Amino acid sequence: MHIGVIGAGTAVVGLLDALAALEEKPNRITVFEGSPTLWRGRPYQPDLAAVRVNVPPIRMSMRVGDPMHYQSWQADRDVTAYLDEGLGQPLVPRSVYGEYLEYTAAAAIGRLRDSGCSVRIVRANVIGFSRERHDVLHTDNGDHVPVDRAVLCVGSGRPRDHYGLTGAPGYVNEPYPLADSLSEIPADHHVAVSAAGCAPSMSPSACPRTGTPARSVCCRAAACCPTYNNAPSGWS
Fold first, then answer.
1. Taking the mean position of all CA atoms in its chain, how far away is CA 236?
2. Contact 31/13 with Cβ under 8 angstroms?
3. Does residue 84 belong to any structural domain of this protein?
4. Cis ω for the linkage preceding 177 (within 30 of 0)
5. Domain boundary residue among 128, 152, 176?
6. Beta strand 216-219 with 191-194: parallel, antiparallel or unpaired?
7. CATH value at residue 69
8. Where do the DSSP E strands lie in 92-229?
9. Is 42 helix (H, G, I), strand (E, B) or coil?
10. Does 81 lie in the same domain as 57?
């Protein structure tokens, strides 16, 4: 069986790891990704150390049925500097979690290849799909790749502009990496952060590290912020 995987972000890391654990593995896997970085997705690119993951390690494992997989990887690294006093557990920079994603993907691909499965990475975007004698994926570099199964793993894409602010002076729609987006803010400007999810919650803490102002206000329609750094409950 030849599996075509569209995208090479976080979801694909879990898919490859799960395929590598099967007794009957596919013969071929082709992964299509046109962006410059594999496996990290948008949020886990190299960035400021202040840009942290927002859930405890036990909830961030990429291995199905093994909630300790990420913690085992983390055990070989010194993460004491990132200990969250409220949780009593480390919340590492997102770029460090990106290293875990890269490690997991590389290990899965190694196991697949050792078993005889061909794994190929195509640095191109899939722009079309057709059914002929086989399902065929069409890429933006002109390739037409027959596959037996196609798996769509493209994530949510770029942030949506819910308020129609694109083009407005000073508006930044894509926050990541914060090292770039915050560095462009003049030191004497007052920052308004639309909504209050993960990136907005981290922006004020990252400002002092970029030389930009820590003075900011979060604007959100709901009366409270979403779940963020909640302490675990009911775990043993």
1. 28
2. no
3. yes
4. yes
5. 152
6. parallel
7. 3.50.50.60
8. 118-122, 126-131, 135-139, 144-147, 149-152, 191-194, 216-219
9. coil
10. yes
Q: pLDDT tens, 110-160?
A: 999 999 999 999 999 999 999 978 899 999 999 999 999 999 998 777 778
**How many alpha carbons lie under 13 Å from residue 145 in its C-beta half-sphere?**
28
Burial grade of 186 (CB within 10 A; 0-12, 13-18, 19 or more): exposed
The whole model's pTM is what? 0.81
Q: Tokens standing for 44?
A: 């886990």
Question: 162: burial class by Cβ within 10 Å (0-12, 13-18, 19+)?
Answer: exposed
Q: In the block, which residue shows the tokens 């400007």?
A: 189
Which two structure tokens, joined as six digits, stand for 165? 């602010």
DSSP symbol at 52: B
Beta bridge partners of 146: 136
Two structure tokens written together for 21: 């654990």
Side chain identity at residue 232, one-letter code:
P
For the stretch 54-68, pLDDT in tens is: 888 999 999 999 999
Which helix H or strand E contains 181, and what residues bound it?
Answer: helix 178-181
Which residues form the domain of 198? 159-224
Please report where in the chains the tokens 């405890």 appear, as a residue.
56
Same-domain status, 202 and 89: no
